[in-house]
Design brief:
Helix content: 40-55%
Mean pLDDT: 94
Oligomer: single chain
Number of helices: 15
Low-confidence stretches: none
CATH class of the largest domain: Alpha Beta
Number of domains: 2
Order of helices and strands: EHHEHHEEEHEHHHEHHEHEHEHHEH
Strand content: 5-15%
Structural class: alpha/beta
Number of strands: 11
Shape: globular
Radius of gyration: 21 Å
Length: 354
């Protein structure tokens, strides 16, 4: 992360529980720690950055935003934010947003009725500090995860509604963003003060071919708020690392992200962002975190193909540091285990190569 040549390339994994279980059986080990040790993967651990406390009054007011017809349905679940999600009886997940709590609001004044968290209530409490300290004692790199305000906004407003707000109701978008960025800033500061090595802003702002909004729209609404947020975090804890996760093609705004203070970008999705090009243009100021294709090489290549890609990435992107190699998204249980193992074997094989 300091842009110095390391003795080996750093690595990380993105293993859901079902894939982890398959690897445990294949490797004859037990648990995430032992899988990491067997494959030589560095330890990264995520913590939620200080969720805001809620009161019974806040819960009641949020529930008032949920229409009566959704409140007691067996096939729906109301989240803590007031979103209504459809349950799928045959699956262990929720999707299909039935209702977003702010979707029917039209004027800025109505936002005052929604009980947004008080940023002053978000602190690095003893529980968070102890959790971070315990993880760091195991030689883990600890990331404090904070929701990207764009994601938070469309969760509350509805995706299409919020994109339209940028164009036809910009004052509403501005005021909603002000509240969400204030919460995110407080969470970043709390995570940093708790001792996390890195604050990670998480939530997609791009698709595979472009941003979800025009680059100039992002620059108008997000850029100044991101600048201000990072300035506050840096003032509180100057040496904390600041990263961002977004899938998709964010190339158009990479210079803006760097200027705002983003140091680490995940995942550098290789189907739409060439890691070698990103390294050439911005590698002296930006750490590439990810880079390995999960749409091509890992699912469809051979172990030799995987190892070739890893060696090419380390050779091309790992000079002078600035590369943390791993999958560009989740390593699904359907992927060949031999390819997943080959990815980390290749990192070990390459150790010591400049």
């Amino acid at each position: 992360m300091s842009h110095r040549q390391p003795d080996r390339c750093a690595s990380y994994h993105w293993l859901p529980d079902d894939t982890l279980a398959l690897l445990e059986a294949r490797l004859g080990v037990d648990g995430e720690d032992e899988v990491e040790a067997a494959l030589g993967i560095d330890r990264w651990r995520n913590v939620g950055a200080a969720p805001p406390p809620t009161t019974p009054d806040q819960e009641r007011r949020i529930r008032e935003f949920v229409p009566q017809q959704f409140r007691n349905r067996d096939d729906a679940e109301v989240t803590a934010q007031g979103r209504v999600l459809k349950k799928h009886p045959e699956a262990d997940y929720l999707e299909d947003v039935l209702y977003s709590p702010l979707q029917e609001l039209e004027d800025v004044a109505a936002l005052d009725d929604y009980p947004f968290p008080d940023p002053a209530s978000i602190v690095a409490d003893d529980e968070l500090v102890t959790l971070v300290q315990n993880l760091k004692a195991t030689d883990a790199v600890v990331l404090a995860m904070v929701t990207q305000p764009f994601k938070g906004a469309w969760y509350l407003r509805g995706f299409e509604n919020f994109l339209c707000d940028f164009l036809v109701n910009p004052q509403f978008a501005e005021h909603l963003y002000d509240r969400l960025y204030a919460t995110a800033t407080a969470q970043c500061v709390a995570g940093a003060k708790a001792g996390a090595d890195m604050v990670q802003i998480v939530g997609d702002i791009a698709m595979q071919d472009r941003l979800m909004m025009a680059p100039d729209t992002w620059r108008r609404f997000d850029r100044p708020r991101l600048n201000a947020m990072i300035e506050v975090v840096r003032a509180a804890v100057p040496d904390v690392r600041i990263g961002m996760h977004s899938d998709g093609k964010v190339t158009d705004i990479v210079p803006d992200l760097i200027a705002a203070g983003i140091e680490i970008l995940n995942p550098i999705q290789p189907e739409c962002m060439d890691p070698l090009d990103v390294k050439r243009q911005w590698g002296d100021r930006l750490v590439l975190h990810g880079c390995v294709s999960i749409q091509r090489t890992i699912p469809f290549g051979s172990p030799a193909d995987v190892k070739r890609e890893i060696h090419e990435l380390i050779d091309g992107c790992g000079r002078d540091g600035g590369l943390i190699i791993g999958p560009s998204n989740v390593l699904m249980k359907e992927f060949p285990l031999d390819n997943i193992i080959a990815m980390y074997e290749a990192v070990t094989e390459h150790a010591g190569t400049p």
